[in-house]
Amino acid sequence: MNWKLNRAKKITAIAAALFVTMVLVVMVPATTLALDHDGDGQSDISVYRPSDPVLGDGVWFVLSSALNSTLRYQWGFAGDVPVQGNYSQAAGMGIGTDLAVFRPSDGTWYIRAFSANLSFPNLFGAFQWGLPGDTPVPCDFDGDGRDELALYRAADGNWYTRNSQGATAYDNFTIQQWGGLSGDVPFPADFDNDGECDFTIYRDGNWFVIPSSESNASATIPWGAAGDIPVPGQYDADNITDFAVFRPSSALWIIRRSTLAGLTFRVIQWGLPTDTPVSSDFTGDGKTDIAVFRPSLGLWFVLTSESNYTTAQAVQQFGTATDIPLGDVAAN
Ligand SMILES: [Ca+2]
Ligand SMILES: [Ca+2]
Ligand SMILES: [Ca+2]
Ligand SMILES: [Ca+2]
Description:
four-stranded antiparallel beta sheet; globular; mainly beta; 1 helix; binds calcium ion
């Protein structure tokens, strides 16, 4: 609790200034596609199946946007947490997302590297980093296009981040204390638009952010309520990450528009209370598409950014009720 008390006054003072600054900075495209397994610039509808009676454990199903066909890979065990990301190569056009799992039982990240022929034949690495109970929160905290192996430990409120930069990949690390209260949800994203992820905690309708561009500062943004699911993304025109939540009780997407420093917002009803939000940029225009996965039927409902969230793509059946649907935010 100390960090909150110590920073409370500072936070209030800084919050307004921070977001004025954010509007004035040069716009840097900072989107890291964590779901583009074929490297064509569009996220792919994907699920991780912990266990399949025929195919075995740890089966990835990827609906390739480039090939318009289903790719299937075995990587992981039941109980693993899918942590797909850009580890082996920096994100960019032609570079796809690696298959990766975090295994809580031994605290190890197992990463299979993207390959241009989409066969993913090579192990990139098995990195022991973490303890049972840690929450993996991979994100690109240093802005080199590769995700850090990052963990949030609820027991001590520390973020343990093994950095992609170094003499050998992932050979050094940093520790950041941020969070630590019961119910805190770690949710890194790039809110200040400098291309680096920011340490962020969502707590009962407040977002506590350490902006990477001002690492000795912090901000508190009230947005949402207890029980909401954070779904930050780029929903409006300025390419800056918007604070947003999905409210399960009413299936509302409540988006604080970064344009005009958050003075306007949008509310869009999409999905059912029992759906899982799986927003990502499925259409490849650089903006987040609003999407839900309906476990009972394995259906994906995607509302496109191009239509300004007025038109849906054709409903896709992809996955089953026991699959883990993958979205920008599904890991949490
Ligand atoms: Ca793709
Ligand atoms: Ca990085
Ligand atoms: Ca940032
Ligand atoms: Ca889009």
